[in-house]
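Input:
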Amino acid sequence: MKGRIGRSLVRIYAMAAKEGRHIVRDPRTLYMSLGMPVLLLFLFGYGVAFDIDRIPLAVVDQDRTESSRALVHALTASRELVSVGELPDPAAALGAFRKERAVAALVVEKGYERALLAREVVPVQLLVDGADALVANQLLAKADALVRAESQRLATAEVGERTPPVRVKVWTRYNPDGRSAFYMVPGLAAYLLAITAVLLTALTIAGEWERGSMEQLFASPIGRLEIVLGKLLPYLGLGLLEFLLVVAFGMTAFDLPMRGSGFALATLGLVFLLGMLGQGLLVSVIAKNQTVATQAGTMSSLLPSLLLSGMIFPIENMPVVLQQISRVIPARYLVHGLRGVLLKGNGLDVLWPDLVALAVFAVVVIGLATARFQRRLA
Amino acid sequence: MSAPGPGAPVIEARGLTRRFGAFTAVDAVSFEVERGEIFGYLGANGAGKSTTIRMLNGLLAPTSGTARVAGHDVAADPDSVKASIGYMSQKFSLYLDLPVMENLLFFGGAYGLSGKALRVRAGELLELTGLAGQDAAITGSLPGGMRQRLALAGAILHRPEVVFLDEPTAGVDPVARRAFWRLIRQLSSGGTTVFVTTHYLDEAEYCRRIGLMVDGRLVALDSPAGLKRTWVPDRVLVARGQGLAGAAAALAGRDGVRSVQPFGAGLHLRVDPARLDEAGVARILAAAGAREVAVDRAEPSLEDVFLAVVGREARGEAAT
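Output:
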């Protein structure tokens, strides 16, 4: 019995060593697993930043008083809004939107200062280019906050030290600056890991079929579980390296905090990788050629991990059907788990349901791949 | 289940049949192969050679019939069969991106060999196959003949009782083919049974026995000499001399002449030895104006056998 297990280990090792040598000798595999994710993270991390900064603001100041200039200053002082110049009337502002010189225009009507001094309610217009809903929404929230601060300043300046009766103090925990990189990078890490892991293994079994070497393997005593495990191991190592690289890059380039334990992080990553590599094997076992395997592998990993993982679109906002579908998308659990470990400092005592979900997926998908993998021809 | 005794056949096929849907690829094939024998399996493309090999290898389950290889039933115990055979498939299945030695180490590992024993054995085989010193060469950079010897080395690392070689010399130059067959004979004299398919008829002469497949059926099985006796009863003659081209017409249609074909500067003919001999042929040619005529007996080739067998199958005659 011991001899049998020993021989089985020898065969798995031979398979893993061979696969490892393929990886080391193939620059494309190394680029795909180590270079591309870092590059994509870099591009996505900056490009997909949802923080609004330096928004061009046109100013239509028809009042031209001390007070109106103070209002403009209050809005642009933080540099989140930047004045791109004065315009004579609101109609000109619409022209500026069309030419994309400004995304917003502040209109201060004549009589602003006079009304202020008369303690009347003063209307101030903010015109917003709504073509990009995301920018428009954030802009409205920002402008609202800035104007409120200004009116508070005006009120207290007049009344003296009197504090307003109710003050809401908002205290945002974990990501106080609302930086999108903090929630994007864990999502991106899961997304990139999902695609590359599925593709890595999707290509490997299909490659054996195409080369004709699968028949040679089948004619040897090497078993199908031995082939599957032998092929998984080196890619698991590579994937783990990729995972750590992506997280480390996120920490250095985007100041991503690491508040939880490395153990929880590595465990979640490892079990997630097993599932995704297994999914690649399943694709590969069914497809039998590299072109189909690449397409099926990409489709089955890219879209669900991007759309249904909660990486960009909150799962709570999805229709119930999509929420249910997202339950079988492993990226969902890794995104949640990573945010928990990195931002909140959660350990496996809190995140164990994510770990269990990932483990179930891995076992099911590797089992399916092995079962579908016929060691006989035709 | 036990190992076969010294006299028992190493490969034993009984009514082995494989159908793919309505198509019968291998039709009730029966034969035995002795230990240490070089057994050639001949046939046109699609005649069922590879399908037979795959059934004997445990890669394809037979539709009906049975086969035992190295004492194990191929349908009931394919894993034991796989452990005791070596196989070189039609498409060389080496990993071209890996160095020579890595290929051997991988295939050795797949058969459960490891450590120093594997390295020593791999070194021995590189020596045997004339690849010594090529350990670090990338397999894809080797010429076809070397790759094919490397593939053979990979198939015999674990000292299998039987090696199956499916068209091992396809697309390899004649010098490399001869070197390869030297290796096969060496293997066989060491006691390894070699089951080889080929469509090079000159190579088949090296086999101790030959099975001939036509459309999924094994229609002839004998030694090369036996096949020639049975299938080419005519005497094959070669005539040389001057002015033969003009005189050849005089032979065609004569009593006892089966066929006349120009062959280089001479004539290649098949005659019925009961009705016409060498002297008779020489007389006819001389009478028709040929000079300095010399007629000699020639050995029929396996090509003659092959054409005779295929011709009879095409006419739909029953087997003897």
